[in-house]
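Students often ask why inverse folding is considered easier than folding. One informal answer: many sequences map to the same fold, so there is more than one right answer. In these notes we will look at a single instance of the problem. The structure comes first.
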C-alpha cells in the first residue's frame, strides 16, 4: 500500500473558491483489501479526510483519492 500526498488544489464549489489537499492511496492486487479499508477509515476518522474518488484499474490495482479542506486562519488579535 502506498500513500502519496499532493499539495493544494483550488476548486469552485457552490459559487465559492475552496482549497483542498489530496492524499492518494494505491492498493496492489496482492494486498489485503481489509487492511486498505482500515487505513481509509483511520484517515477519515482521525485525519479529517473524505473520499473524493475511487477507481479499480486493470490488473486489480485500486486507487483512492482522499481530500480535506484547507482553512485559512486570520488573526483576531494584533499585538502592538
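Output (designed amino acids):
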Amino acid at each position: 500500500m502506498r500513500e502519496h500526498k499532493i499539495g493544494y488544489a483550488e476548486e469552485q464549489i457552490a459559487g465559492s473558491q475552496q482549497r483542498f489537499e489530496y492524499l492518494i492511496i494505491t492498493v496492489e492486487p496482492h494486498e489485503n483489501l481489509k487492511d486498505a479499508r482500515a487505513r481509509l477509515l483511520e484517515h477519515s476518522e482521525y485525519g479529517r479526510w473524505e473520499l473524493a474518488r475511487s477507481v479499480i484499474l486493470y490488473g486489480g490495482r485500486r486507487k483512492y483519492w482522499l481530500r480535506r479542506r484547507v482553512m485559512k486562519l486570520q488573526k483576531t488579535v494584533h499585538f502592538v
